[in-house]
Amino acid sequence: MKGEPIIILLVEDEEAHAEIVRRNFEISRIANRLIHVADGQAALDYLYRRNEFSDPAQSPRPGVILLDLRLPKVDGLEVLKIIKADPKLHKIPVVILTTSKAEADMIKAYDNHVNSYLVKPVDFTQFNQLMETFGFYWLAWNQNPL
Amino acid sequence: MKISEPSGSRVGFAPLLVFLLLAAGIVATGVFYYRSQERNHRAEVERQLSSIAKLKVEELAQWRKERLGDGAMVFKNSTFTALVRRFFEKPEDADAQRQLRSWIEKYPDSGYDRIRLLDTQGIPRMSWPAGKLPPMSFAILQSLPEILRSGRVTFQDFYRNEHDQRIYLAVMVPILDESDANRPLGVLDLRIDPETYLYPFIKRWPTPSLTAETLLVRREGNEVIFLNELRFQTNTALNLRMLLDSVALPAAQAASGREGIMKGIDYRGVPVVAALSAIPDSPWSLVARIDTAEAYAPLRGQLWQLVVLIGVLIFGAGAGVGLVWRHQRVRYYKERAEIGDLLRASELRYRRLFEAARDGVLILDAETGMVVDVNPYLIELLGVAREVFLGKKVWQLGFFKDLIANEANFAELKEKKYIRYEDMALEGHDGKRHEVEFVSNVYLADHQKVIQCNIRDISDRKRAEASARQSALELQEKNAELERFLYTASHDLKSPVVTVRTFLGYLEKDTAAGDAGRIEKDLRFIRTATEKMARLLNELLEVSRVGRVINPPVRITFRNLVDEALGAVAGRITEQGVSVKVGDNDMMLHGDRPRLAEIWQNLVENACKFMGGQKEPRIEIGMEARGAETVFFVRDNGIGIDPRYHTKIFNLFERLDPKAEGTGLGLALVKRIVELCQGRIWVESAGQGQGTCFYFTLPGAVGEQKAEGSHSKEQ
Questions:
Q1: A5: which of A31, A55, B120, B361 fits an S-S bond (Cβ 3.0–4.6 Å)?
Q2: A3 — pLDDT class (breaks 50, 70, 90)
Q3: B365 phi, psi to nearest 5 deg
Q4: Do A25 and A34 touch, CB atoms closer than 8 A?
Q5: What is residue B74's DSSP assignment?
Q6: What is the pLDDT of residue B661?
Q7: pTM
Q8: Co-location of B637 and B686 in the same domain
């Protein structure tokens, strides 16, 4: 706990879902900074500091990535593959957050070295609990090498 | 069916051999039988001759002994001697004369023809029968001194009386005066006429015979003299003489002292069988002989019978063998004819098979590779005349270039003996390729090695297989698509549910907190999510109906279709101020009218959606010919699509821009409709801001139209 806010990169095409995540982090008292991109291409642009994210000051390295699977342009799984294949990026914990409970998706994600796989609960309370737990786990307890 | 090829000689030779063997057997048996018969007969003849000879010899010897015994009656008889002395001293002594005559007269019973009493000078003093006393024969006188000197009763052998020229024998009894130191007084001559008994006895033969006779001979120096009259020659007694060393002459051999059976040539020069025997205590030898011809006549008769029998047997054997041979011959030719018929029938059957087969058959000479025969099916299949095949080597034909391009390939074919290729292409005369199954076999036919190639056209099968593969592939694709559809549908439908549920929770909280700003925000999220859900469900329904719900096909022109589509999206076009230009070309299309219209409707809608900040938005709709195809296009000058996403965009629920309206079903829908018309759809775009052009083909709708068109013209 260095007091510095942990940067969370949220890759989510559904605006509503991004709002849910944002609200949860606002409620939790963990110091963080949520950066939201709406598609896979944008996420990669951010991580590689391309196009609109080319300014390193504006695009700090995230402490954890929350990644949806079904994304426009570049699929979430594809993004995961690129991150985990890149030695400069593969230490960043990637947590899948998706509506898909499909086994195939889960296996593919873990095959590509995902750090955690979370399914969006349909229930309001459960979603809140999940996000709270996620916050404590990844942002408070989990130690990142950076 | 195999029959041995009969050479004429082989058929003829066996029976001939059998016949010869049979004949040889018959002849050998005959000869053996004849030989044994001959031996038996000869033994019989010889036995007969020997017994006859023996009988005669014994009788002759007995006869001589009796004669000498007759002589002995008066020999050294003192009474007789005294009478003789008295008579000689006193010839006129009548009493002595009378007594002497009574002595002598006792003799005639014994077959003496004349008995004489001689004095020592050989002068007859008394004779019986009484009569004139002729002078004595010289032969008697000559032997007289010897007889007197020997003082024994002696046989005077056959001699010729020179006075009557007759032949006689005599028993000479010397009369010796015992009272006067055996002084010879005279001789009693008991003369025997052989004609009375001896000659008939000798001549007599116990069985009737034409040539048999008995000869009595005696040796005189180196000559043999015949003592009796012969059967086949007159005046022989004491006249016929022959040399003793005539080896073949039985008489000579007998005179030389030989005894037993011999074959020889008799005095007539005729072959004879003879039994020789010496007569004891005499100079005589007896020959009992018979002509060989007669002796063996029965044998000859038998021989003739035998010859006739053998002849008959041989003829019989010949006839038998001939009959069997003829029978076999007839049967053989009959079988041959039957086999010939069967072969012809078989040949015909196989020929029909060859000609009617729905497989190509090619027969090659294995040595040269020359085409020997080709069946009509292969000719038909390759579409060339029969003459093209015949007289060519298989690698020169060109049809089999994949398999037998040259002589080396052919040698390999020959080497392997059996080859089977499942898929081989055969190019016909018209350039049409046939998928064939090729099987070749090497075998011997009529001492000639041939290669039979069976060629089965399996083009149809291959087509069916390819079509089945295609169907399977399509089915697989459809399945994958369906799976994707289900997955995305459930996933994308879940997403708004999560949104609604969560924001309802926030709404509750915010309502309780009375935060009006938040409440409004929550409600907006909920509304958007439900709207999205509704649209999604609508479009899903739409997609599921494509290909499932089919409107009856109608004929409609390209322009009419485009107009219809533009009508449906007219509001949007006007709103965005897009100028739409439709090409001048037109053509008749045929198909599900509302569905076809949806293609252009969706593409135009899509183009409008992604115009971006374009100041002069333009959409161009048209068609152009590319090769044999008619390609339709919808072009815009909007934001364009990154080449990376050119395939992705056609996937279900695929959206490049998360903020863009729509569910990502539009292009997937278009793709499905195009595919239902057996067409393709693709996008061409240089990239971001370069505009987009969707191209697609509709062979189903165009092709149908063509057929329909021509049809309508006919009407």
A1: A31
A2: low
A3: -75, 120
A4: yes
A5: T
A6: 66
A7: 0.45
A8: yes
pLDDT at B706 over 50: no
B496 and B558 housed in the same domain: no
Q: Which of A73, A102, A121 sits opposite B645 (nearest CB)?
A: A73
Distance from C-alpha of A111 to C-alpha of A93, rounded to nearest angstrom: 15
pLDDT digits (tens, 9 = 90+) for B429-464: 777 778 888 888 888 877 888 888 888 888 888 888
| A40 contact partners, CB below 8 Å, separation of at least 6 | A11, A71, A72, A73, A74, A75, A76, A78, A79
Beta strands B284-291 and B371-374 are unpaired
For residue B506, the distance in angstroms to the closest alpha carbon of chain A comes to 8
A62, exposed or middle or buried, with CB in 10 Å at 0-12, 13-18, 19+?
Answer: buried
The verdict on a CB contact (< 8 Å) between A17 and B495 is yes
| Domain range for B123 | 73-192
Which is nearest to B606 in space by CA: B545, B693, B488?
B693
Q: How many domains does chain B divide into?
A: 4
What mean pLDDT value characterizes chain B?
84
Are residues B475 and B404 located together in one domain of the fold?
no
Which pLDDT does position B512 carry in this prediction? 92
ipTM of the modeled complex: 0.87
The pLDDT-based confidence of B500 (bands split at 50, 70, 90) is very high
Contact B217, B285 (CB under 8 A): yes
Domain harbouring B431, CATH code: 3.30.450.20
- Residues B527 and B476 both lie in one domain: yes
> Does the beta carbon of B77 lie under 8 angstroms from any beta carbon of chain A?
no
Domain annotation covers residue B299: no
Give the pLDDT score at B130: 76
- Convert the pLDDT of each residue in B513-523 to its tens digit: 888 888 999 99
**A97 domain residue, yes or no:** yes
Q: What type of residue sits at position B501? A: R
Q: Mutation test of the interface with chain B: which of A82, A99, A127, choosing the one with the most B Cβ atoms within 10 A? A: A99
pLDDT at residue B296, rounded to an integer: 82
Q: Which amino acid is at A48?
A: Y
| Residue span of the structural domain in which A129 resides | 6-136
Query: B322 in a domain, yes or no?
Result: no
Q: Does B492 touch chain A (CB under 8 A)?
A: yes
